[in-house]
Structure formats: structure tokens, C-alpha cells
Amino acid sequence: MLSGKELSRKIVHILVGISTVILIYFDILSPLSIFLLIIAGIMISFLSKRMRLPVFSYFLDRFEREDLRYTFPGKGVIFLFVGVLLVIQLFDKNIALASIMVLTMGDSISHLIGKQFGQIKNILSADGKKLLEGTLAGTFTGFLGAWIFVPFPEAFLGSLTAMIAEVIQIDFNKSSLDDNMVVPLVAGTMMFLVSRYLPF
């Protein structure tokens, strides 16, 4: 069952993602700005483990997952911007924005729908916690968000592949890579390959 804190966290995730897309689209947020945000986020995370910071600690108490509050506070937001920075550096603007929309909409909605309405276990889930209804909902909403910026085939295949990657859970050096970094990279890579090599 979905808790109020989880719902609030996903709403914040969607708002941050959409705001980021708008700022990048209008060239207000540059790669350098995003890099500086990541550095600032890492510093705030480090300090938040040791002391209470005005405003930041309030938001962490209200929205951060319990298992990360004192181990890696702000991890989700930091890795969201790492994923954003990677895709805007690797891909053209439309693919980058579409990839961020897959992360913003697909990743959030898959979690919300899976937790609230999911019944069927996704056979690709390594830990058995991801549910098929969530994956399908995430694929659809991620596709709709991406379709604003790229053609139908790129948007659909990019979203589908990213949601499969989100379920599989990619491990690196015995730790799972953060979804906020994996999802936009996988989506962007698939969109790039489709646009370049498939004759739609």
C-alpha cells in the first residue's frame, strides 16, 4: 500500500523533473549550472548527516526515505541531476528532454501504480517487488512525456526499454545503480539508436 510520504516524494520528483525540463528547454539551466547543483547537493548531503540545516533538514525529514535519511540524504535528487547532466551532454536536446520526461513520468508513475494497484509480479524483477501494472503504467506515461519531444517510435521504444531496465536493477560493484541515472541513460540510448538506425 502506498504511504502518504511515498506519494509526496513522487509528486516532488515529478515537479522537479518537469521544472528541469522547462528550464533546459528555454536554455535557463545550463550543463555548468547542473554540475554546480550536483556539487552543492553532495555538500548539503554530507553536512545533513552531521547537523541540522535550515530548510534542507525540514525537507529531508518530510520527504526522504527512512533508510537514506542518515546514510545518503538527498540521494534521489543528486542522482536525478547526474542523470540529467549525462543525457544533455550525450544526446541532442530533444532526445535529452524526452529521456528526462521518461524518468520524470515513467519512473514515478510506475512506482505509484505498482504500489497502489499492482497485483501481478513482473517476471523480470530481481527482487520480486516490481509489479507488471506499474511497469505498463510507467511505460505509457513515460512514452507520453517523451512524445512531446521525439517521434512516436523513439518515444515508445525509449520508454519501454527504460522501464524494463528500471525493473531489472543493474548492479555495479555489488551495489545497484540508481534508477534516476539508469532510466534516462537507457531511454536516451534507445531513442538515439532508433532515430539513427531504424527507418521509420
What can you tell me about this protein's structure?
- It is built from eight helices and two strands, in the order H-H-H-H-H-H-H-E-E-H.
- The chain has about 200 residues and is mainly alpha-helical.
- The chain has one domain (about 5-195).
- Helix 4 packs parallel to helix 8 (about 180-195), helix 5 (about 95-115) packs across helix 8 (about 180-195) and helix 6 (about 130-145) packs antiparallel against helix 7.
- The longest helix is centred in the middle third of the chain and has 25 residues, at about 95-115.
- It is globular.
- The chain starts with a helix and ends with a helix.
- About 40% of the residues are buried.
Short recap of the structure:
This protein is mostly helical and 200 residues long.
Oligomer: single chain
Order of helices and strands: HHHHHHHEEH
For the biggest sheet, the summary is: 2 strands, antiparallel
Please count the helical segments. 8
- C-alpha termini separation: 41 Å
Q: Which structural class should the secondary elements be placed in? A: mainly alpha
- What's the count of strands? 2
How many separate domains make up the residues?
1
Integer average pLDDT: 89
User: Over the alpha carbons, how many angstroms does the gyration radius reach?
Assistant: 17 Å
Pick out the low-confidence regions.
none
Strand content: under 5%
Helix proportion: over 70%
Widest sheet: strand order?
1-2
**Per the principal axes of the C-alpha atoms, what is the gross shape?**
globular
Q: Which terms would index this structure?
A:
single chain, 200 residues, mainly alpha, globular
